[in-house]
Each structure stands twice: as C-alpha cells, then as structure tokens.
Amino acid sequence: MLKEEAGISDSPDTPQDEPGESPEEAESSVERARETRALFLRFQRQRDPAARDELIERFMPLARQLARRYQRANEPLDDLVQVASIGLVKAVDRFELERGVAFSSYAVPTILGELKRYFRDSGWAVHVPRGIQERAMQVDRALKELGGRLGRSPSVDEVAEHLDASVEDVLAAMEAGQAYEAVSLDAQRSAGETDSDTFADSIGVEDERFELVEYGATIAPTLKALPKRDQVVLHLRFVEDMTQSQIAERIGVSQMQVSRLIRRALARLRTVAEAGERDTKD
Q1: Residue 137 structural domain
Q2: Residue 16: in which H helix or E strand, if any?
C-alpha cells in the first residue's frame, strides 16, 4: 500500500508483478528497485553525497503526496512539502538497507511523523493536546472526503461513523480545530463589510471610576451619620455642582460657614475611607 501511494517500487528484492501490470512496467519496477538499492549502497558505504541527493530527489513525489494529505485552506502546500522533505531526508539518512524492507515502508511513517510534529509544535495558535490535534486533522480530512462523496456537508453522526469515533469526540475535535489559527483583533467582525466593527472594539476597558464603588460602600454609613445639614451641603456641592455662594444662599448661611462645613464633612469621610483602605491591605 505504501509503495502504491508513492508510485514507486523500491524493494531490495525482486518485486512481484502487480495485478494488471504489463511486462514492461514490471521490468521497469525491477530496474528501479535495483537502482535504488545501488544508490543506498553507494551512500551508506562510501558516504557519497551525490547518491544521497539522488535518493532524495527520487522519493520527493512520495513526500509531496503525503504533504497533500495534510493540506488545509489556511496552510500553504509549499510549507507542508518543505516539512515532508525534512522527514524524507531523515529517512534517507537513517534507513538500514540490511533490514531487507522497502524504503517507502520506512519513509512513510517518518515523513508523517515530521508533519504531525510540525502541526503539534508550530501550526496551532494555542496549545492543544496531541491526541486532540490528531483527531482534529482526522475530522478535517473526513469532512473533505465525505463532502466530495455525498455532494453536501456531512453531519456529525456521519463523520463519527466514518471515523469509528463517538459524536462527543468529533464535536470536541471540531471545537479544537477552531484554535488552529488565531484571528487578528483588527479583523472585521462581519465578513465582507469594510466599515464593520473589529474584534478589538468588543473588548471591554477598565472603568477608571470603578474604585469609587468601593469607596462609596466604605463611606456610605459615615455619610448617613453626618448631620442633615452637612449631607445637604455635600449633595449640593458635589452632586448638583453648585458653588459655595449658591449653597450659602440656598441654606441661609454665609459662604465662610459653607466652606467650613464642607471641609469638616470631607475630613470625616476621608478618615473613614483611609481606614477602610488600610483594613483591605491588611
């Protein structure tokens, strides 16, 4: 199966004719397998860099095909091919010819491992457990495959049946897939509308007067305990924003008396507020 995926026969032994394979194709496969074995012998015994380069070039179609398996709309194929190529190079360098197995049987899991490592370490915008990452990629491939087969978007139940997984696992993988790519705060919240709000516009800011709520709760009992006239003076000054002259005229006292009333009332409230702040820190 792995050799079929690569379109290459590279077994060190003489391969058997595939069903429906013409004699010419069978002879070509045998010759290619011999050439591959000869290249590995040159590279491993003589450390010939030219043989290494030729092996890498010979199996690049395999790397490209495996890279296409993991292609997504937001993942450039060239980047995936580059990652798959790194896996191919590692496979060529580590392959042991004397084991008597086809190179593609060793190269495919090595290349796939490199691709999965790339998605795990570099592709995701936030950290997602490895198992969930792999499940998310399986779901993504299943959605594309079933969509092409059915001519519509498959249901969650259909995806779960296709993957032999539970509906809960599929839903968790689909939710995790949304964490693959981060969205810029400057992006428009409504697609296609250039003048719509951005995501940054929806983020709240710290209320600069928020601490006044705590101060108000601290001094409220003391404010109520002030003489009624002091309460009226403070209300007129700081709520209705009246001047001392206007307050004096309103309550029938001099402006100097209003000034003393305000200073005395504020001093009492400030003392209570500072004491409450110290208690909070302690």
Answers
A1: 127-182
A2: none
